[in-house]
Amino acid sequence: MLGVIGFGNMGSSFVKRLHKDYKISVYDKDKSKLLNSEGLSFEAKDSLEELLEVSETLLLCVKPKDALDVLKSLSSWQGTIISCVAGLEIAKIQRFVKARVVRIMPNLAVSVGLGSIAVCGDVSEDVRRMLSRCGEVFELEEGLFDAFTAIAGSGPAFFYKFLQGMVLGGVYLGMSKESALKVSLQSILGACELLKNNGSLEELIFKVSSPGGTTIEGIKLLEEKAFCGIVLECIAKTAQKSKLLSTL
Q1: Fewer C-beta within 10 Å: the chain N or C terminus?
Q2: Distance CA 67, CA 52 (A)
Q3: What is the mean pLDDT of residues 50-73?
Q4: In whole angstroms, what is the distance from residue 236 CA to residue 242 CA?
Q5: CA-CA distance, 104 to 149, in Å (whole number)?
Q6: Residues 144-166: tens digit of each pLDDT
C-alpha cells in the first residue's frame, strides 16, 4: 500500500497518475482538500496513525514548514519514505526516522506521466519503477537538487510566463486569445520535438533565422534585452532559494 501524506498540488498529481495501478491511502490534515478528488481511487484516512498502519511506502508531500512535525510522528515506522519536500536533505530526515529514505524532486507533469523526477538515496527497483510511471527519472547527486529544482521543479512556471508573453503578443497583433494560445503551444511542442531529435540548440536557431529575415530581427531584440542573461539569473536565484530552504 502506498500512503500519501499531503494532498496538495504534488500529492494529488502523483495520485492522479498512480491510482489505477497502485492501492493508495491518503492523509491530509486539511480534509477539504480530499473533496476535490472525483474519479480518483484511494482510501482517505482520518489520521496519520491510520495511514501508517496500512502503508509499506510513504510519499511525503507536505510543505517544508510542516515536514519536521510529520517526521517526528514517523520515528518508529518501518518502510520506505519518499520525500518530495523542497530543501529537506536526506541527512535531516534520517535524524528523525529509521526507515529507508529516498529524496525526490518532481514537477506537476507527473500527473500526465511526463514529469521530470530527480532521485537520490536508498532507491529500490520498486520505487524506481513506480516513479517511472510518472515520467523520466534522473538519478542525481543530492548537491545538484537545487539546480534541478530551479530547472525542472520551477521551470514549468517560467515556461508558462514565456508562453503568456507569446499569447499577449498574438492578441496585440489582432489574434484571439484562444487562437494565439493554440498556435503558440503547437509551435513550442513542435520545436521541442525537433530539439529531441536533433540535439543542437544553436543549429536549430540558425535554421529558423534566415539572414536579414524576421526571426533574426526578434533574436536581435532578445539579445539587446539580455534575454538569456535574465533567464540564467532567474534559474540561479531560484536555486539559491531552494538552498536557503535547506538551512531553515
Answers
A1: C
A2: 16
A3: 94
A4: 10
A5: 10
A6: 999 999 999 999 999 999 999 99
CA distance 106 to 14: 10
* Planar angle of CA 58, 241, 33, nearest 5 degrees: 40
Percent with pLDDT over 90 in the chain: 89
Stated pTM of the model: 0.88
Over residues 201-212, the pLDDT tens digits come to: 999 999 999 999
5 membership: H or E segment, kind and range: strand 2-5
Give the confidence band of 34 by pLDDT, cuts at 50, 70, 90: confident
Rounded (10°) CA dihedral 15, 16, 20, 23: 10
Q: Which domains are delineated in the chain?
A: 2-142 (3.40.50.720), 155-245 (1.10.3730.10)
Q: Say which residue the cell 539580455 belongs to.
A: 226
Query: DSSP H helical segments within the chain, as ranges?
Result: 9-18, 48-54, 64-72, 90-94, 125-132, 145-148, 155-172, 177-198, 201-208, 214-224, 227-245
Q: What Å distances lie between residue 23 and 79, 80, 87, CA to CA?
A: 16, 16, 28
DSSP type of residue 125: H
Question: Cell 536533433 sits at which residue?
Answer: 198
Please determine, for residue 103, whether its predicted confidence score (pLDDT) is greater than 80. Answer: yes
**DSSP structure string for 18-86:** HTTTS-EEEE-SSGGGGGS-TT---EEPSSHHHHHHH-SEEEE---HHHHHHHHHTTTT--SEEEE--T
Q: Is 143 helix (H, G, I), strand (E, B) or coil?
A: helix
The conformation of residue 236, written as its DSSP 8-state character, comes to H
Q: Across the strands, what pairs with 116? A: 136
